[in-house]
Design a protein that fits this description.
The structure is a homodimer of 355-residue chains.
Chain A (H helix, E strand, L loop, with lengths): L2 H8 L5 H11 L10 H14 L9 E8 L14 H12 L3 H9 L2 E8 L10 E3 L17 H21 L3 E7 L3 H13 L3 H4 L8 H18 L6 H8 L2 H15 L4 E3 L2 H13 L7 E3 L8 H8 L15 H19 L3 H4 L10
Parallel strand pairs in A: 1-2, 1-4, 2-3, 4-5, 5-6
């Protein structure tokens, strides 16, 4: 069995006993029952994932994967392709949005070149795991071979497993890749059964005319490739991207290791659709950090059955939304672990006569 | 002139120049313009408040004020009154929700007894500034005298000023007081012009029958006191609470000192209505952390023109929502201060030809 199949088979259901214990403990803490809302729900999910009634979040990482997209030849993006490599350098130098927010939450950033087209200077902190020099133009045929698609996903599995070996209690997903909202929209169309026009958004900020053009390019890609939602790896190969496959692998690998995975925005959402297509049970391990300003992200989340924690009008990617989500997950875990119970604090529980 | 009037006169408009500089800097940072959404808006507001193009958030405090409410004699609350004092002890011992979240964000908690009814053991970390032993029952007449109302507000001003002297870049508001959603609903009714039934919520979790009873008690209080929205201090005196007045003072004092103030949930919202009634310009200094699960909180926020950052179904109070809001404000400030510009990072800005 290959690593992908093995990983999928390893993903177990959440630990119901730990979840019940966490829920029961929440109800003994010095607050009205349910009064911390989603923080309480989140703590119960974390308990089920980690298989512990009092889940702990100490070691945090965001895995940010960068790759290029042949479809930029069709003029779908606002920024030139060399920006992907330039931003990888920016990640390594600590100057990007994700670096700032990762420092803020005390998470490490794992920067991965999984297929950038232009030259990226090697650096001890850059993980170079290139599947190819960017994908091919999906508007004319498959973006990658099925072997490359499998390699991208397995790369994600291997990388998250390596992080687990270093210590990892929660992981966030992040992306960089000029043109990758085009690929993600195509995946969204296939996996949620929507038309190209419904799932195409403004990406980094294109205008009205370019938006219509982008939708028509996606339509052409879907017509040229005829991807089938029931074969998620094929969908990835035909209209996906290396970083999207890699992030799907991170999600599967995290779940197989009982590590909660915090999903960032639109590109991570596309990866989540592929991951959930391959292994539906992975959804239980996912936490949707936020709903992106990229218009079709909400369709991805509702298809996945995920309710975002935040709605901040963000659409940067890189893992920036995931960083904020990790902070909230850590808050949830600390509430469950650190709050005093009614008995410990000598606080009267609610008057049963309803006074 | 008394301290309250002096404070109100001191509150200046936001620094437009600093806001323009912050906005201009955001557009040079290595991300598509506007792609960090509300974090960008927040950074600009912080610049205007602090009067600095690159605002800093280092010293953080949450001021949690506790007081009791005579109206609990009418059976409006689920928990017995002694819980207010018990929870103050819990705050001092570090076991409450606010302690956990304040530690998580690196903020100090200032715990204030501004009028708890039952005995609170003195402690070096407890700030005892009692206006009275809880308010009187507002369903039969004024909750407090106009002098007590002024004293509560001035206490808040003095306490936040003392924190400013220790170093304070942002402050959050928090409350504790059995019965205080009843007073806050009454204030909401008066200040937003709604009927008691529209603004009465479940508080710590009362049932259907008790909810109707609570609304009828609020109706009686409004009929007995006839508070006039154009006289906010009188509204506070007739149907408010000591902690609500104190928190209104914290908001006014923070604004007078150019310190951003993060508004927690329903009780802080009532305080914000009083503060904004006294000095409309204070609203520019407010950041709404979240919209509470307490149903009428959204009416308060829309009346104040505030858009909440979070919607997590929380309704604990204590400043727990404010703590999460402070984290987001700090994230916003760090993005503006720490991200590299396109020029610094050698990243190509968007292709002006729209390629």
């Amino acid at each position: 069995m290959n690593n992908l199949d093995r990983t999928i088979k390893t993903i177990a259901p959440l630990d119901q006993k730990a979840m019940e214990q966490a829920r029961a403990r929440q109800d003994t803490l010095t607050k009205p029952q349910g009064s911390l809302g989603r923080l309480e729900e989140l703590s119960v999910q974390l308990a089920g994932i980690q298989g512990s009634p009092i889940p702990r979040i100490e070691h945090k990482a965001i895995i940010t994967m960068a790759a290029d997209h042949g479809v930029v030849a069709q003029g779908v993006a606002l920024f030139p392709q060399e920006v992907t490599a330039q931003m990888v350098a920016n990640f390594i130098n600590g100057g990007a949005g994700i670096n700032v927010l990762a420092r803020h939450i005390g998470a490490r950033v794992v920067v991965v070149d999984i297929g950038v087209a232009t030259e990226v200077r090697s650096h001890p902190e850059l993980v170079s795991r290139r599947v190819g020099p960017g994908t091919r133009d999906m508007s004319a045929g498959p973006a990658m071979t099925i072997e490359e698609a499998a390699r991208a996903v397995e790369t994600g599995i291997e990388l998250v497993s390596a992080e687990v070996a270093k210590g990892l209690d929660i992981v966030g997903t992040g992306d960089m890749g000029i043109g990758n909202t085009t690929a993600s929209s195509a995946i969204c169309a296939v996996m949620t059964g929507r038309r190209a026009g419904e799932v195409t958004g403004r990406g980094t900020g294109i205008g009205e005319q370019q938006l219509a053009h982008k939708a028509s390019v996606i339509e052409r890609a879907l017509a040229a490739n005829r991807p089938d939602a029931s074969r998620p790896l094929e969908v990835l190969a035909r209209v996906g991207g290396f970083e999207i496959g890699g992030l799907a692998g991170v999600m599967l690998g995290a779940a197989a290791n009982r590590v909660p995975v915090v999903i960032d925005g639109f590109i991570s959402g596309a990866a989540a659709l592929i991951a959930a297509g391959l292994a539906p049970q992975v959804k239980d391990y996912m936490i949707a950090a936020h709903v992106s300003a990229e218009s079709a992200h909400c369709h991805m989340l509702s298809h996945l059955g995920l309710k975002p924690l935040l709605d901040m009008g963000m659409r940067l990617g890189e893992g920036t939304g995931a960083a904020l989500g990790i902070f909230l997950a850590e808050a949830a875990a600390k509430i469950l672990a650190e709050m005093a119970t009614f008995a410990e604090a000598g606080v009267s529980d609610k008057d049963k006569e309803g006074n």
